[in-house]
Amino acid sequence: MSHTITVIRGDGIGPEIMDATLHVLDAMGLGLAYEEADAGMAALDKHGELLPQATMDSIRANKVALKSPLTTPVGEGFSSINVELRKRFDLYANVRPAISFPNTKSRFSSGVDLITVRENTEGAYSAEGQEVSADGDTATSITRTTRKGSERIVRYAFELARRTGRKKVTVVHKANILKSTSGLFLKVAREVAAQYPDIECNELIVDNTCMQLVMRPEQFDIIVTTNLFGDIISDLCAGLVGGLGLAPGANIGTDVAVFEAVHGSAPDIAGKGVANPCALLLGAAQMLDHLGMPAQATKLRTAIVATLEAKDSLTPDLGGTGTTMSFAKAIASRAAA
Length: 337
Hints:
The structure is a single chain. By secondary structure, the chain is of the alpha/beta class. It has 2 domains: 1-95 and 245-337, Isopropylmalate Dehydrogenase; 113-240, Isopropylmalate Dehydrogenase. It contains 11 helices and 12 strands. The strands form 2 sheets. A 10-stranded mixed beta sheet has the order 2-1-3-12-11-4-5-10-8-9, sandwiched between helices. Strands 6-7 form a two-stranded antiparallel ribbon.
């Protein structure tokens, strides 16, 4: 079955890693069709706005998008284009896997295989009620947690565990101090967990979670938490396995899903052909899972691992002398076999 996906090439190194990713997907013969759309600085230059209506229409029609990093201008427009996309399409679940890869500069060369499921639409990032007092001495904002938001993200985590054969969900909170907001999240999480007796559930305070992650990450399987905690924890987990160059992300809603590399646009190396495409390729693997192509997703991940093991055309950040496209071609040769 053919699928049409919206492709957003993005800014900085975005077009380079997108070209590399599409080269690999095409080599696999998956029958994917691409509809190009603009966002970020590229869209501002071409259309005079950061997030054109045509891009929104494309994502809404195709229901799946693959997105390279975007640059949000300082001091104008949205606080974040990514946050704006999550709001407009109600992409409530941010799903970030962290898996050990061979031949990477990381503390843990094996043993890490976990997923952070982060609530994506409320909490500290909702930016409600932000204001600074007239004298500039006091800043305030509202952090809002709802039963609906808590229930659906925790349920998503448990359903993900069942679907992928994972055995444990860790609920991360700060209910000992934030008794209203984090307290509600924890209360709802306990109610949902009771409906999944086949999945082990434990609870950890967020600061203890961070300590445990850097000491014994193998004890974690799926972590589910609120927006700000999830943002911090998922980047910490990326650091365990070699950095953001190996960190994909999925933003899942009821009707639409956007898959991405979670790192930035890296303008300092844009155009040099040395950017590591793995994060976006791993995001594409998440997309294939979402499209009902798990065997192809596994094949893509296996090809990435095999290429890293062989040290075949690795980019400079991975200790090699390859280019973005030579690395992609090495992966494609294995994925297409």
